[in-house]
Amino acid sequence: MRALILISLLFWITLGSFGQHSDRVRVGLFWNERPASVIVRPDAGAYQVYGDGKLVTTLHGMGLFQISIQNGLIEVKNFSKSYGRFKQVKLVERDPFSRFKIKPVSSDQIQRIYEDDLEISIYQNRLKIINEATMANYVAGVVQSESGNGHEPEFYKVQSIISRTYALKHFDKYEKLGFNLCDRVNSQVYKTYGYNDTIKQAVKETRDIVMVDAEINLVTAAFHSNSGGETINSEDTWTYPRPYLKSVEDSFSLCMPHFEWEKTISRSDYLTYLHKFKGVDTTSFSIKRYLLNFCPEKRQSHLFQQDSIVALDDLRKHFELRSTHFCVDAQNDSILIVGKGFGHGVGLSQEGAMKMAKLGYNYSDILHHYYSNIHLIKLSVIDFFKAEN
Fold first, then answer.
1. What is the pTM (predicted TM-score) of this model?
2. Backbone angles phi, psi at 89, to 5 degrees
């Protein structure tokens, strides 16, 4: 019991700030392009519209607004009138089931739907668009965006815990810009409301559960599409080792949709890249033969495993390969690259986790298979010990 109290107190000390601020999350939308004009309309419920803190109007039903930058201010207008120009515009939900649709003007971006509130201001002459969402709605949106529909409840629980852990670990990533996370892949993909009841239930049933390491720190909850049968150590892809991101055999990813792939590239482009950018002596007969017939018996991190000159992840990025788990087959003026897996290979394989869920493994089994020596702990424990102390 004393050990449990000590662990919980350590958890409170380490993550106390997350316990205080985790109910809502501010997410920067369309952060890749940051449009100058958007169309906003309700999808359900109604919204009170504020300009610089003052109530301007209520948006409901079939109403819509175009919100644009005009002469350094934000103009709010519809087809018939302008409601004024402001430094900041907020849409605050009037009903707990309210949702809004938003789409940039003059963009190929599809219309998105979000819950909760919307805040718009100007940053570097473009719109800074922030969805202030409950953590539950944010996590559900990430799970939907990252995973899609049609999966087992236990898989959605896995993705919920991963998404929540990531969000809290990186909660202050964009603090200087006035929000927490963005909708890009370098945070977590967050582009849709369209989650189903199974996702909503998975988020609810795993509420407040996060992954921590042996030191009671939130883990880096890395994941990818398919491991190709074996995950890779974090230090073999990134510069830092993580004791919980170790290579594991992963038979569950075999024969899944993204297990195998092929790509043909120019033989000249391949050798030129290795010589020009990596300093490899491609004039050497033995080295050239090795390069053109590269096919390791076991997954490795570098082209020449004994050195650290040519990282396979560099090849993956340069030639837009699906993974670093591949063999090279020279064919006249081209080479055929035959690979396994999809993604960086660190942490959890989504397709492997989907297979495990179908086979009856629960979310704890799945997470402990892919992450070494981690613990699943509820954030609500923090609040309990905070009240006691």
1. 0.88
2. -125, 135
